[in-house]
Amino acid sequence: MSMRTAYVAVYETFADWEIGHLLVELRTGRFTGVPWTVATVGESAEPVVTMGGMRIVPDVVIGDVQPDGGDLLVLAGSGQWDAGGGEEFAKLAARFLEDGVPVAAICGATAGLARAGLLDERAHTSAAKEYLQATGYQGADRYVDARAVIDGDLVTAGPDSPVQFARAVLERLELADEPKLDAYEGVFHRAEPAAYATLVG
Prior knowledge:
8 helices; alpha/beta; Rossmann fold; single chain; DJ-1/PfpI
């Protein structure tokens, strides 16, 4: 069985810490037993620099990515979303969702999906309801005040919830059961030493 692939969108100033927890668990499979391939996707082949100053050379360009070639699309926040950019990545997200392939968006990326109309009919969360309402989207009545929200193939979270974002994506991908997911949050969010045994068990 070939490894499943997570496509990770990379663009200038993307918020590396927002997706760090998730990517480590997917790539290593250290708690799930299922390692994934993590492939970075850029608008071009040019390197980008993250908000934390790390330089990343995209593995593939957006035009070469097909939903049926991957198992997840991950979108982090960045300055581009708040400047009204990221349209090509929002279009890619729309294609993934149309094909029934999960999309995980955190922080500013949720605003990009809101602008593209992808949150109008789906339960979702973000940094704050007002933040998304500023996009002029039609989905305010589907906004949920939670750390992370799963609705079908879409997972969303706010910038303060990278651990809950990772947990929700692992849940949606069925990579861990409820006790293990709770232990994951216990270790990385609540700093509970006792939860570690469940996590590695």
